[in-house]
Amino acid sequence: MELKVKPPKLIDARLKPKDIIDRLKVLGYQTRITHHRYFGRKLLKNSDIRVLLKAMKIMGENDLTNIIMPRGGLTEVEIYKTLSSSLLIPLITAQSQCSLSDIFIYRKAARLALFRAICQVDDNESILTLRKEMQQMFLKYQIQIKDQGKWVDYDNPDFPQSEDKEIAENEAKQVASETQKEVRVVEVFE
């Protein structure tokens, strides 16, 4: 009799938005994340879209497949300082916007908006530690070249995204000399 062994489950060691929110809560901050998606041509809050979908089903609309766009969207994060159990002081609002040419990924949008918000909080060492952790996990540097008047990612396996800005800038100089094109390094938040 042959035993079937399941392959080990891959564990994502990166921080999830919930982990970040939990750490902020321990530090005395409350957060609110609001996702917006394209409903037809209108950018609406997800909560509003749910209400509209229920109303459409009640009215007999059965084909709702092409109404919510898979591409594009907006995520807003609001961070509040907790002073007492019922008193919240609004501190910061940050956003991340997904292009209409990109698939909207909730986790990525939330992480980016949370990172932008945390970059605005200058409170204590714990916030700085969280910010550095997020930078190490998610911030990469991509080389881009100017091709026919547009900036495009330089897709070459010899020059992948780098976690070190200095390395990326040195590689960009090499790419510029090889391609004889204008080159820049941009931050990419994964």
Beta-strand percentage?
Answer: 25-35%
The biggest beta sheet is recorded as: 4 strands, antiparallel
Radius of gyration, CA atoms, in whole angstroms: 21 Å
Fraction of helical residues = 25-40%
Number of strands: 7
Task: Going across the biggest sheet, name each strand in turn.
Answer: 2-1-3-4
Low-confidence stretches: none
Overall shape: globular
Taking the alpha carbons of the first and last residues, their distance comes to 45 Å
The number of helical segments is 5
Structural class: alpha+beta
| Overall pLDDT | 84
Total separate domains: 2
Listing every helix as H and every strand as E from the N terminus to the C terminus, the arrangement reads HEEHEEHHEEHE
Report on this structure.
- By secondary structure, the protein is α+β, with helices and mostly antiparallel strands.
- It has 2 domains: 14-123, no CATH class; 139-190, no CATH class.
- It is built from 5 helices and 7 strands; from the N terminus they run H-E-E-H-E-E-H-H-E-E-H-E.
- The chain has helices spanning 17-26, 46-58, 106-120, 125-138, 165-179, and strands at residues 29-39, 42-45, 71-82, 88-103, 139-147, 150-153, 183-189.
